[in-house]
Amino acid sequence: MSKQLTNSAEAWRWSRRCRICERAARELDLQMALGPALFTTKSYSHPDIGRTYARAWELCRQLDDYSREFTALRGLHLYHVNLLEMEKAQHFAEEALRMAERLDDAARLVGAHTMLGHTLSSVGSSSRRVLTRGRASSCSIRTCSSRTGRVPTPACHAKASRRRFPGCSVTRIGRPMNSGQR
């Protein structure tokens, strides 16, 4: 009898945990939709934006949703940049960089290096090293024409050319591939 009670209590706890996770996932969906809407309708430094992205970041960490965690960090970074709270903005840019490295995603690495570089340049730090590292770490983006439209994909090899990839153009962050400047 006590084993049945233990199993039923365990099942109840498991059921409750599942409901909490489902509720958190639904709330995260709403927070992630609300963030861009607030940026569009309110000023970039409105307190609701900070609260929305802070809650989204908290939910992402609870649910281990790394891809959306990067987006929440980007929203927090932009919010604090607009408040001119550069130390906080730098913190969120560094967190985003760690997240992009964990995800091993070239596009997110570019975004994180750009966030951090611009934040450091705003406070007067030497950001050239950070921005250069962002360009060098798989930072060329190849845009390919397909039947569904133009699809941006990371190009891991900067030596890609139009001869090797017909219909594709390769651009390095900050300067076009054919600009002749290095």
What order do the helices and strands come in, and which of them pair?
Elements: H1 2-41, H2 47-63, H3 66-82, H4 86-103, H5 106-122, H6 128-136, E1 140-146, E2 149-155, E3 168-172, E4 175-176
Antiparallel strand pairs: 1-2, 1-3, 3-4
Helix pairs in contact: 1-2, 2-3, 3-4, 3-5, 4-5, 5-6
CATH topology: Serine Threonine Protein Phosphatase 5, Tetratricopeptide repeat
Q: Compute the number of helices.
A: 6
In this structure, how is the largest beta sheet organized? Answer: 4 strands, antiparallel
Apparent shape: elongated
Q: In terms of structural class, how would the helical and strand content be classed? A: alpha+beta
Task: Describe what you observe in this structure.
- The structure is a single chain.
- With 182 residues, this protein is of the alpha+beta class.
- It has a single domain, classed as Tetratricopeptide repeat domain (Serine Threonine Protein Phosphatase 5, Tetratricopeptide repeat).
- The chain has six helices and four strands.
- The chain has a four-stranded antiparallel sheet, with no helix packed on it.
- A hairpin with a 2-residue loop joins strand 3 and strand 4.
- Helix 2 runs antiparallel to helix 3.
- The longest helix is centred in the N-terminal third of the chain and has 40 residues.
- The protein is elongated and about 60 Å long.
- The C terminus is likely disordered.
